[in-house]
Amino acid sequence: MSQDWEIAIQRTINNNVPRVHRILENHKYVLDLAKKLREAKMRVLSDLETYVEQTLESVKRTGGNAYFVNDDEEAKEIVGKIVGKGKIVVFGKSMVAYELGIRKYLQQLGNEVWETDLGEFLIQLADEPPSHIIAPAVHMTKERVAKLLKEKLGFDVSESSSHEELVQKVREFLRNKFLSANVGITGANAVAADVGSIVLVENEGNIRMSTVVPPVHIAIVGVEKIVPTLEDALIEALVQAAYAGLYPPTYINVTSGPSSTGDIEMRRVSPAHGPKEFHLILVDNGRLKASKDPILREALLCIRCGRCHLHCPIYRVLDGSWGDAPYSGPMGAMWSYIIYNDYKPALYCTHSGNCKEVCPMKINIPRVLEYIKYMGNKQRRDK
Ligand code: SF4
């Protein structure tokens, strides 16, 4: 274990764990919402293809473009055609885009690409994989962040700079990128099948900027993020924020197609001030197959709150490098198998069971990992 990691993860646990306890104690209705959300997501997972079709139709009804892709190659082809080359692209945090290698692909095409979530921005500068799903730079101490900003961008900061000073410098730098961006790319916390809206929850404001300021918005989202209704999608945003320890969330963004106005004779005209194009790319990449397996299906319920990480003894000793990026920790051990057919991260699990206790979706993570271990051994034997 590196000394930097030990310091950074201890500070994170001290800041986050008591906060989540307080939130759940003070807002008990979140527990009921989580239960309701699990039921809604289970309904979708038992008939995922039908919900994919319904979602694609709903997005088109709102004036958006909707696509279903099987893998990274298909996703890159569509994104490449929409973006082209020589553009400025801002990313508003999309784990699926990372999974598919979209940022690097767009850079190869000759675009200037910026991650705008602060954690993602830092790991982009450091050219390192994320170490946590909601705090990708959790392995960096404040002192390391200052050094990185000074070295890579020449910011006037030092190891004694405060958290506030560091954030202010990045804010100034990225503000210009938002205002000159041609395309904004985001993920989604949830997609409502009934109306085709995507819902994104955040605190920084970078997602709101990425979805509204550039003339084109692309959302790249795994099919497991589909929920039956907009009500369920908003519930997912609240539950995710509470279990992530960021409650109430500063922003919940709902996007339903390109911008529009009905202010002249109530005739709906698009675009108005926001994007003139909205594209939703729904990604399979192993998810549909997992949805057919009664044990692996559980993993698809994950709402990316990151809670299991901070309660897991193994995540803590593995320096945040457990799992295939961008998936880390106990959830990452499940998702490494689903997406990359890599069973090895599951082998590290010692089945302490803490993850299952704290998971808002009540995913039986140890059971899923035990199953992946079994499947991995079978794969090895059959070779
Ligand atoms: S597996 Fe559960 S606790 Fe872990 S990130 Fe997903 S929803 Fe959160």
Question: How would you describe the overall organization of this protein?
Answer:
This protein has 383 residues and is α/β, with parallel strands linked by helices. It has 18 helices and ten strands. It has a six-stranded parallel β-sheet with strand order 1-10-7-4-2-3, sandwiched between helices. Strand 5 and strand 6 form a beta hairpin. It starts with a helix and ends with a helix.
Number of helices: 18
Largest sheet geometry: 6 strands, parallel
Q: Order of helices and strands, N to C? A: HHHEHEHHEHHHEEEHEEHEEHHHHHHH
Q: Give the helix/strand class.
A: alpha/beta
The backbone outline, from C-alpha atoms, is globular
Ligands in the model, by name, code or SMILES, are: iron/sulfur cluster
The total count of strands amounts to: 10
* Relative helix content: 40-55%
Describe the strand arrangement of the main beta sheet, using strand numbers.
1-10-7-4-2-3
Indicate the low-confidence ranges by residue numbers.
none
Bin the strand percentage: 5-15%
Taking Cα atoms only, what radius of gyration do you get, to the nearest Å?
Answer: 20 Å
